[in-house]
Amino acid sequence: MAVAFGFFAFFVLFIFNSLTHTLCLRTEMAKERQPGVFRMINIMITILLISSYVEILFT
Q1: How much is the pLDDT for 40?
Q2: What is the rounded (10 degree) CA torsion for 55, 3, 13, 59?
Q3: CA-angle at 19, arms to 15 and 25, nearest 5°
Q4: Which of 4, 11, 31, 38 places its Cα 20 to 30 Å from the Cα of 20?
Q5: How would you label 6-16 residue by residue, b for 16+ Cβ within 10 Å and e otherwise?
Q6: pLDDT tens for each residue of 31-46
């Protein structure tokens, strides 16, 4: 179960990072600001994935 969720989490993070990269390119975001945007989105998605894993684990 944990291995399958790990692959799912990796896939979700990869997709969201691709979408974030596209967002940065289309909005012509400054290079100095991009790492902060990536960090914030990755932290939020990681929190979401951890909370969903805990919910699945205790259901």
Answers
A1: 97
A2: -10
A3: 145
A4: 4
A5: eeebeeeeeeb
A6: 999 999 999 999 999 9
